[in-house]
Design brief:
single chain; 17% helix; alpha+beta; 58 residues; 1 helix; 10% strand; 2 strands; two-stranded antiparallel sheet
Length: 58
């Protein structure tokens, strides 16, 4: 699980120009988890074999 303070650390490092390995581009959006599509997205409404998107948080 991601450190709950990651977003705060990144914001402070960006604001005070502290060098860090994940520098953000101007107007960039920062997300704490990736949202990954499944190989088994629904093919039709009510597909019993379908899976949703997954949060990669680990």
């Amino acid at each position: 699980m991601a450190d709950p303070l990651d977003r705060l650390k990144a914001a402070l490092a960006d604001r005070y120009a502290v060098p860090h390995p994940f520098a953000l581009m101007p107007r960039a959006r920062w997300y704490s988890e990736a949202l990954l599509p499944s190989q088994f997205l629904k093919r039709f409404r009510g597909d019993p074999l379908a899976e949703g998107w997954t949060h990669a948080d680990g």
